[in-house]
Amino acid sequence: MKRIGIILMLTLGLTACDNGDNQKAEEHLKKAEKALKTQHYSEAKLQIDTIRTLYPKAFDIRKKGVKLMQQIDLQEQQRNLIYLDSMMTVKQAEFDAIKGHFVLEKDTAYQEKGNYFYPTQTVEKNIGRTFLRGQVSEQGEMSLTSIYCAGGNINHTSVRVSVGDSYAETPSSKDSYQTTDLGRPIEKADYKLGDDGGVTAFVVQHENENIQLTFNGDRTYRTVMQLNDRKALVELTNLARVLSGIEEIKKEQKEANLKIEFVKRKMAGENVQKN
């Protein structure tokens, strides 16, 4: 009898503890529900995480917490979409305001995406000219092309821009090539923004100064960057910022929509199992 009494006391004690845990877990759940109503999503998640951590045996409350967490995730992503849509409107308006300053060149027969050029740097206006050209893809990827056709080949693979003792220099181009135009040799080398040795940023910083442009190859060739070429890189840098911003928003919108679809499928699946 004494042993039975001990077991009964332990059982009653455990039951009391479980009831106490359920009550405390319920309090955290109510706080989470209140936080959700006021759109304090971080606080709501914190309360649910507290239930998971401190009250592992409060099974019914934990299940309610899981469902509430799904509602939090859904509302949070829906709010993000509203914000992203407003940001897209701002960015699109910014692009619409400046896109007329550039020329889009795109051959739909073999190009999936075209490139924007500054009007003074389009191909037809620069035949036979040695200079540094900028371009921005429709997705906001900026790159530079060094074009040399000053007579004879120098097999250049990099360029340097300098003002006095200050300079920036591209690494050796991973995409250089040579061609001819009416028998005149033409050399070109491409450099992507971020892999241009800071040349683009240097030109933007020194837009109003005389910048010397040096082509590095078997021998060097020096010239001075024209004002329009310096301005072109400044304007294209801004265009790249706007277009890449639009692409980033599109990416985040896609991710938010995928998360919303996932949560809705999960909620719908649980409802089917329940019924």
What is the gist of this entry?
The protein has 275 residues and is an alpha+beta fold.
Question: How would you describe what is shown here?
Answer:
With 275 residues, the protein is α+β, with helices and mostly antiparallel strands. The protein folds into 2 domains: 2-96, no CATH class; 106-244, Sandwich (Immunoglobulin-like), CATH 2.60.40. It has helices at 2-37, 41-54, 59-98, 199-205, 227-274, and strands at residues 103-105, 115-117, 131-137, 142-148, 158-163, 166-169, 175-181, 184-192, 212-216, 220-224. A 6-stranded antiparallel beta sheet has the order 1-2-3-4-8-7, with helices on one face. The chain has a 4-stranded antiparallel beta sheet with strand order 6-5-9-10, with helices on one face. A hairpin with a 2-residue loop joins strand 7 and strand 8. Helix 1 (2-37) runs antiparallel to helix 2 (41-54) and helix 2 packs antiparallel against helix 3. The radius of gyration is 32 Å and the shape is elongated. It starts with a helix and ends with a helix.
List the helices and strands and how they pair.
Blueprint: H1 2-37, H2 41-54, H3 59-98, E1 103-105, E2 115-117, E3 131-137, E4 142-148, E5 158-163, E6 166-169, E7 175-181, E8 184-192, H4 199-205, E9 212-216, E10 220-224, H5 227-274
Antiparallel strand pairs: 1-2, 2-3, 3-4, 4-8, 5-6, 5-9, 7-8, 9-10
CATH architecture of the largest domain: Sandwich
CATH class of the largest domain, named Mainly Beta
What is the CATH topology descriptor of the largest domain? Immunoglobulin-like
From the N-terminal CA to the C-terminal CA, the straight-line distance is 47 Å
Number of strands: 10
Biggest β-sheet: count, sense, barrel?
6 strands, antiparallel
Characterize the overall form: elongated
Encode the helix/strand succession as letters. Answer: HHHEEEEEEEEHEEH
Radius of gyration: 32 Å
